[in-house]
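Handover notes (outgoing to incoming on-call)

Open items:
1. DUF4268 domain-containing protein: sequence verified, structure written out, both below. Nothing else pending on this one.
2. Nothing else urgent.
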Amino acid sequence: MSGRVYVVQADNTLQSMAEEPFSSEDMLQRFLKTYPDLLAGDQMNPIAPRQWLLISRELPVPDSESSGGRWAVDHLFIDQDGIPTLVEVKRSTDTRIRREVVGQMLDYAVNAAVFWSIDQIKAGFEETVRSRGREPAEVLLVFLDALPDRDPEAFWHTVHTNLRAGRLRLVFVADVIPIEVRRIVEFLNEQMADVEVLAVEIRQFVGQGVRALVPTVLGVTAKPGAGAMSVAGRRWDRASFLSVLEQYHPELAPIAGRLLDWIAPLVSFIAWGRGKVYPQWSPTLMLDDGRRCALFYCWAAPNSATIQIPFGTLKDRPPFTDPAKREELRRRLNQIDQVDIPEDGTERYPTFPLAALSTAKAFTEFQTRAIQSRRDGTLLSYRRTSRPRRWRRAKP
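DUF4268 domain-containing protein structure tokens:
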């Protein structure tokens, strides 16, 4: 490792800085934790530079539902589009940077997509922030401040959706990226549609008490749509959602349209997703405490169109803080044909096919048993804790 950079100082003298290896892997990891911009999100996508929210360092990765964590990923960041970004750090002197680290990272990605929960990710974020003497809610709001939709609940839901769909970013970081690793990264990035694979080479230059860190992103390919996950998503609406649904599942578009027509006047507004490929919408209430509450999510994708019940966030909203109320809602939903939410679904984000609502009987059961009735335990029981004057109706 050799090289120099030169800094022209204010008095027009030239300061030479020599390239110097990192003294330890931990040193490089600490720099990344303290200065996430070293991941060079502007090089990953110059049009929409990536912004980073550090979730945790050494976050456990389980290989089963019951295991506490077989591995630990060096860093987990999330970008402004809710894409989980797994970062593995190695020094060039570590022989594992040659090829072993690639297989290791793929193990992390496969198991994280299946076994990480959004609660685990949120807990890691909160622990990281509090260890620095700050409040997680404040840090998250600052991160979301530049986004069109500053809703923390919607952000975490997007993270969960991306995780379960396997939409991830894998980043290898080292002071020198070997050529064989670079070739593997480029190959994987070409072949994997929903996973972005990159390498970041961070070189260190030191001289006269000054340290410079120079990151370079490697592995960005010229494939069609490369880096698409890094481009800010569109804002969907009724027409575009139904257009996509008609393309994938024409028989289901009337059901989604009817669902929109019915639910829109009953909630504060319809929140339209910003996904780049697959659209979604959610009927949303504004609660007295200023938080939003999505009652359910409706998704359209080539292989399925689904309704998702966000028990994972509902459990933080009364009356569903009571496990018995969540269980009651689960049982009501399961009375509809083709709906089979497991018992542990009341802690998660279960889905059922939109096609389950294709008959008049099933649609009415969804309306009356799960959404709107005179009893507590339906989703619109939130009306009793919301101020109607704060509601605003949205056009369906």
